[in-house]
Amino acid sequence: MSRIDAGEAVIRAHREEWARIVASLTRRFGDLDIAEESAAEAFAIALERWPTDGVPPNPGAWLTTTANRKAIDRIRREARRDAKHQEAQMLYDDGPPEPLGVIDDDRLRLIFTCCHPALAMEARVALTLRMVAGLTVPEIARAFLVQESAMGQRITRAKGKIKAARVPYRVPSAADLPARVSGVLAVIYLVFNEGYLTTSSDTDPVRSDLTAEAIRLTRLIRLLIPGDGEVTGLLALMLLAEARRQARVSKAGALIPLYDQDRRSWDAELIAEGHALVRERLATGVAPGRYQILAAISAVHTSAPDARDTDWSQVVALYDQLISLDPSPIVALNRAVAVAELDGPEVGLAAIGGLDDHLSGYHAYHATRADFLRRLGRTEESRSAYDRAIGLTGNSAEIAHLTRRRDELPLG
Predict the structure, then answer these.
(1) CA 25 to chain centre
(2) Residues 344, 346, 351: CA angle, nearest 5 degrees
(3) Averaged over 223-241, what is the pLDDT?
(4) What is the pLDDT of residues 302-338, one digit of tens each?
């Protein structure tokens, strides 16, 4: 087997098995550092051995066994060096099992551990992206627009706090679950978004492994609390976005905006499921939360057989409802896009006029502004805004799309 083929097999295994391996190691050894480092060592060994030995029949089992051996080696070294006899006992006795909570799933236990309220929200998201999604520290740093060293320290401190506070590795009890679920949903949504449109130029522009994992975890949580509207709303939102995955990137590797997508290639089954979930929540008559409103907006878009048939007045009304719950600059930016479709680019441009102080480092703000300026014939200003957007995004498909749009502007 060539080194390239073996490398591709390791990359595929990393996407499919990382979370499962880290979760199983965490359950056995009770230490996120040991789990993460041992899993990373196993993948490094695979990169070294698989080109000559061949890819094993069951890569996940091979990697799990190798990672477990590395974890045991580390614990033995620490036990000899620091006399950690109690910790070393894990080699021979896993001890009494932790309560499993209301569902038994290693990865779900891992995400609730990473999302424990003892951690700040930014630490929960970063830790989950590293431990559950397997993103590298540089990738996570780009997502947060912070320095790589600062993100590494954030993750290290989060793991240390979990260990010091003896945070239990389990799904919360049924009584505690509702209070914990909102933080978990926020993390899962960010994991989904990292797969939906990656922040790194070193990976595929769309990572279906991350979107699939986010959807799988949300389905599990919905089994736990089926009456929670925000869980259902998030699931609907992600399904309706995932349904458009095949239409979102061209063969040349450029992002295809919603209005240019071939709607015949959308996944009709996922759209039907997403619409059914939105209708289910509407039928309850309960005031919707943020994810339910976002899902409803997506349902309006995916109900239109053609982009020209989109009910923009309904989209704007839903954004008005959303902004009363979440008056953030991002929501205001997205609302402005809908307003521009309804009332014209000049109104849209005026709507984002006060957002520069908040979103100057956000590529989508500059891309939106570039589009409004292009439609108004303000070519040089549009070109400058496209340049700014291109410089701020790391996603290869977005870069290709924005570059094409900029280069289509008339000269002079």
Answers:
(1) 23
(2) 100
(3) 94
(4) 999 999 999 999 999 999 999 999 999 999 999 999 9
Rounded distance, CA 199 to CA 205, Å? 8
Structure letter (DSSP) for residue 266: S
Encoding tokens for residue 65? Answer: 């066994």
Stated length of the chain? 412
Dihedral (CA of 167, 172, 173, 178) sign: positive
105 and 159 in contact (C-beta within 8 Å)? no
pLDDT of residue 87: 52
Query: The whole model's pTM is what?
Result: 0.77
For 162-210, how does the pLDDT look when each residue is reduced to its tens digit (9 = 90+)? 988 888 888 888 788 878 888 899 889 988 988 888 776 666 788 888 8
Distances (CA, A) of 273 to 184, 267, 292, 295: 22, 10, 14, 12
Residue 237 pLDDT greater than 70, yes or no: yes
Single-letter residue type at 132: V
Residue at 12: amino acid letter: R
Residue 351 neighbours by CB distance under 10 Å: 19
- Domain residue extents for the chain: 3-91
CA gap 65, 183 in Å, rounded: 33
State the DSSP code for 267. -
CA distance 181 to 98: 20
Q: How far, CA to CA in Å, does 100 sit from each of 106, 126, 358? A: 10, 25, 43
Gap between the Cα atoms of 66 and 72, Å rounded: 10
Burial class (CB in 10 A: 0-12, 13-18, 19+), 286: exposed
Tokens of 4: 């390239």
For 40-62, the pLDDT digits (tens) are 999 999 999 999 999 999 999 99
